[in-house]
Known about the structure:
Shape: globular
Strand content: under 5%
Structural class: mainly alpha
Oligomer: single chain
Largest sheet: 2 strands, antiparallel
Strand order of the largest sheet: 1-2
Number of strands: 2
Amino acid sequence: GNHKLNGYPYSIVIQAWAKAGGKSGARHAHTVFARMLQYYRAGRKQLKPDIRSVTSLLEAWIQKSRRLALLPSDQEDEDKQQEEREEVREKIRVPLQYMQETYYKVRRSTTKQNATIISVPFTTMEAMVLGYECSHTPNNVRMQKEAKVAQLQWMDALWNSFHASHKPHEAFEQSVARSLESCLRFQKHSNELEGNDIHNSTVLEMLESPPPGTRTNRNEIIMRLLNSKIDFMDCNIFNVGP
C-alpha cells in the first residue's frame, strides 16, 4: 500500500547481527547497512542510518579485526586470513565515510583543522577512533595518512567532549583511554611505514611509560593530559601535516 517503511526495522536487524558476532555477524550487519544507505542516498530520507546502527556496525568490524590479529600464524590459512583482513579494511570504510560526511563539519585554516561534532555520543567517537586504526591499508602511505588525520579529528572531538564534561564517569574515562592507546598504536605503525622516528612528545611519553593497563594508570594519564590541555590536531604532537 502507501505505507513507507522507516529505518527502525533496519536498525534493529543491524544491531542484532552486530551483537551476534561470530564469523559472519559483521558481514550480515554490513549487508543490511549498505542496503539501507543505498536507499537513503537514492532519496528515501526516512531510511537514514541512525547513530546506534553505525556504532554497532563499527564495533562489529573492530571486534573482527581484533580476532584476526589474535589468530596464530598458520601458513595454510594465511591466504584466507589475509582475505578477511582486507574485507575488514574495505567494509569498515563505508560506515566511517558515512559518519565523516554526515556528522563532522571541518573548518580548514592555515595551521590546523578545526572540527565540530554534531551531537554524537562519546561511544560513537571512540568507535570512530578505533575504526580508523582498523581501516588503513599497509604499505600505502597516502591512505595511511588520510586515516590517521581522520582518526585524530575524532580523537580531538572526543577529547574536547571529555574536557567539557563536568563529571566524566568511568565509562567515559575508559573510552578516552582506549582511544588514546589506539592513537598511539596507529602513530607507531605510521611512523614505521613512513620511516620516521617516534617524536619525543609529551603525549607519547605519557602513553608509553607506563603502558595504561589498569584504571588507576589510565586515569592518571587522562588527568595529566587533561591538565596539559592537549590539542590532538596540533601537527607538532602526532606529526600530521596541515
